[in-house]
UniProtKB/TrEMBL annotation:
<dbReference type="InterPro" id="IPR017972">
    <property type="entry name" value="Cyt_P450_CS"/>
</dbReference>
<feature type="transmembrane region" description="Helical">
    <location>
        <begin position="12"/>
        <end position="33"/>
    </location>
</feature>
<keyword id="KW-0472">Membrane</keyword>
<dbReference type="InterPro" id="IPR001128">
    <property type="entry name" value="Cyt_P450"/>
</dbReference>
<keyword id="KW-0560">Oxidoreductase</keyword>
<dbReference type="GO" id="GO:0005506">
    <property type="term" value="F:iron ion binding"/>
</dbReference>
<protein>
    <submittedName>
        <fullName>Cytochrome P450 71D9-like</fullName>
    </submittedName>
</protein>
<feature type="binding site" description="axial binding residue">
    <location>
        <position position="439"/>
    </location>
    <ligand>
        <name>heme</name>
    </ligand>
</feature>
<dbReference type="InterPro" id="IPR036396">
    <property type="entry name" value="Cyt_P450_sf"/>
</dbReference>
<dbReference type="InterPro" id="IPR002401">
    <property type="entry name" value="Cyt_P450_E_grp-I"/>
</dbReference>
<keyword id="KW-0349">Heme</keyword>
<dbReference type="Pfam" id="PF00067">
    <property type="entry name" value="p450"/>
</dbReference>
<dbReference type="GO" id="GO:0004497">
    <property type="term" value="F:monooxygenase activity"/>
</dbReference>
<keyword id="KW-0812">Transmembrane</keyword>
<dbReference type="GO" id="GO:0016705">
    <property type="term" value="F:oxidoreductase activity, acting on paired donors, with incorporation or reduction of molecular oxygen"/>
</dbReference>
<keyword id="KW-0479">Metal-binding</keyword>
<keyword id="KW-1133">Transmembrane helix</keyword>
């Protein structure tokens, strides 16, 4: 053995090859150590788990189906039970992660708020909502801050709702009460009536009193409805954003451009009308109240009427809750002789009903998608720049981990004397989102819902149409731009005060 070794070392060629081999081995080991270190230090790119994918469509085929469980928020929840609270889905060209736990929602919306403060903008929304110049899609920055400031100061705060109450809200709500009284004892389409009332209040808040004649209201409502419906007609734009040719081919571009033309026409008519009126009337009271564009674009216009519908439907299914709420509102009415901003503040049970409705039926069940602007790590997984982030608010707000065994029940009592609030710091309850882009219409929206519900409960008893019972009342959902009732809510008002 020794003889062999000395022979090898004596030969210069063999010696140099040996040295090279040793160096090569060292190099390989160093690489291996580096790789292992990277794996164990977590620096390697680790994608969140998700279902298997097909070429081109990615994971889309996992979302299909015709039953109600195929609604995106329900299907995402089912998939998250298999793949975890941070799940990756390849939706066509769009790399998406779905968040289904309060802890990870907090990591995204609070710990990494700035990184996720943008929203993905599709070609359709760019045309429809004037792209990044709009408050919803504007990237986080100076322009967006300015829009938020204007929106909060001018029309979207609760105090403003209250100050307007004596004017438009009173007017709209009394006309709702009047029409319900006229139709008392017969079936009424409550969904439609509430939608008209709330759209009236919202539109008047934007137009100011000069435009109280309601001449533009119908046009605005038509355009809003059309924008909302178009969600289903702009699928290609959402899943294959860079394939503009396909959007043209399937007719999406035509649909979007047509809606855009109509909405511009409505806006032009309102603005021209406004200028004409300003020449006649120099009243400056309405200065700054014209956030028409913002208002028209706001898909969330639908959210308050949707909430009233769900709250009324849940109370029809739970007569005990309805009676308790009516007793509270009527007591307040009897002691003051009216329902106004002051005694609404005292209606603790009514507020709990609204909170519980927002928990079980969040109008935006998947919030509004956010976009990752800088590669980062969430819950130990790498989220690359450009990933779309969907927070499944609906799943989190029904999770028994946070809400106990009664998570699926409508139980307003859970919010009575509770510290849980929707202002974005309790991540198990975020119907208005959280962080920098939390909904600026929160106070405005809840304010309107409180007023309308209080009046419906105070002045009427409610019955179901014949043949329908509390148990059989349909609670099917339909997801357009908000999570609405599949069928309109038809009820019988019985005048009682
Ligand atoms: C009352 C029911 C409402 C609910 C449940 C609701 C919910 C939401 C949610 C979840 C978001 C996304 C927040 C996020 O990304 O963190 C949002 C954004 C927004 N909401 Fe609402 N909303 C409601 C009413 C309103 C109303 C009445 C308005 C105005 C008329 C409004 C205006 C907006 C705007 C402008 C944004 C975008 C904010 C931004 O990106 O900076 N919302 N809303």
């Amino acid at each position: 053995m020794d003889h062999h070794l000395s022979h090898l070392l004596a030969s210069p060629t063999i010696f140099s090859s040996l040295i090279i081999s040793i160096l090569f081995l060292i190099l390989i080991s160093l690489k291996l150590v580096k790789l292992l270190r990277a794996i164990f230090s977590g620096r390697k790119v680790v994608s969140p788990p998700g279902p298997w994918r097909l070429p081109i469509v990615g994971s889309i085929h996992h979302l299909g189906g015709t039953t109600s469980s195929s609604l995106p928020h329900r299907r995402f929840k089912e998939l998250s039970l298999r793949y975890g609270p941070l799940m990756h889905l390849q939706l066509g060209q769009v790399s998406t992660v779905v968040v289904s736990s309060a802890e990870i929602a907090q990591e995204v919306l609070k710990t990494n708020d700035l990184i996720f403060a943008n929203r993905p903008c599709t070609h359709a929304s760019e045309i429809l909502l004037y792209g990044p110049s709009d408050i919803i899609f504007s990237p986080f920055g100076h322009h967006w801050k300015l829009l938020r400031k204007i929106a909060s100061l001018q029309m979207l705060n609760g105090r403003r709702v209250r100050s307007l109450q004596s004017m438009w809200i009173k007017k709209e709500v009394s006309s709702l009460m009047k029409s319900l009284k006229e139709e008392a004892g017969s079936c009424v389409n409550l969904s439609e009536k509430v939608f008209v009332t709330i759209s009236g209040i919202t539109s008047r808040s934007a137009f100011g009193k000069k435009h109280n004649k309601g001449r533009h209201l119908e046009a605005i409502m038509q355009v809003s409805e059309r924008i909302s419906e178009s969600t289903h007609e702009t699928v290609v734009s959402h899943l294959f954003p860079s394939w503009k040719w396909l959007q043209v081919l399937v007719g999406e571009t035509r649909v979007v451009e047509e809606i855009c033309r109509n909405s511009d026409l409505v806006l032009r008519n309102i603005l021209v009308g406004e200028e004409e009126e300003e020449e006649d009337d120099d009243d400056e009271e309405e200065e700054g109240e014209c956030l028409l564009k913002t208002l028209l674009e706001m898909k969330d216009q639908e959210a308050p009427p949707t909430l009233v519908e769900w709250a009324m439907a849940e109370m029809m299914k739970n007569p005990r809750i309805m009676r308790k709420a009516q007793a509270e509102v009527r007591q307040a009415y009897r002691s003051k002789g009216h329902i106004n901003e002051t005694n609404i503040e005292e209606l603790e049970y009514l507020k709990a009903i609204i909170k519980e409705t927002l928990r079980l039926h969040p109008p935006a069940p998947l919030m509004a998608p956010r976009e990752c602007t800088q590669t980062c790590e969430i819950n130990g997984y790498t989220i690359p720049t450009g990933t779309q982030v969907i927070v499944n608010v609906w799943a989190i707000e029904r999770d028994s981990k946070y809400w106990g065994s009664s998570a699926e029940e409508f139980l307003p009592e859970r919010f009575v004397k509770s510290w849980i609030d929707y202002r974005g710091s309790n991540f198990e309850y975020i119907p208005f989102g959280a962080g920098k882009r939390i909904c600026p219409g929160m106070g405005f929206g809840v304010g309107i819902v409180e007023i309308v519900l209080a009046h419906l409960l105070c002045f009427f008893d409610w019955e179901l149409p014949s043949g329908i019972t509390a148990e059989t009342l349909d609670m099917g959902e339909y997801l357009s731009s908000t999570l609405r009732r599949k069928n309109k809510l038809i009820l019988i008002p019985i005048s009682c005060i």
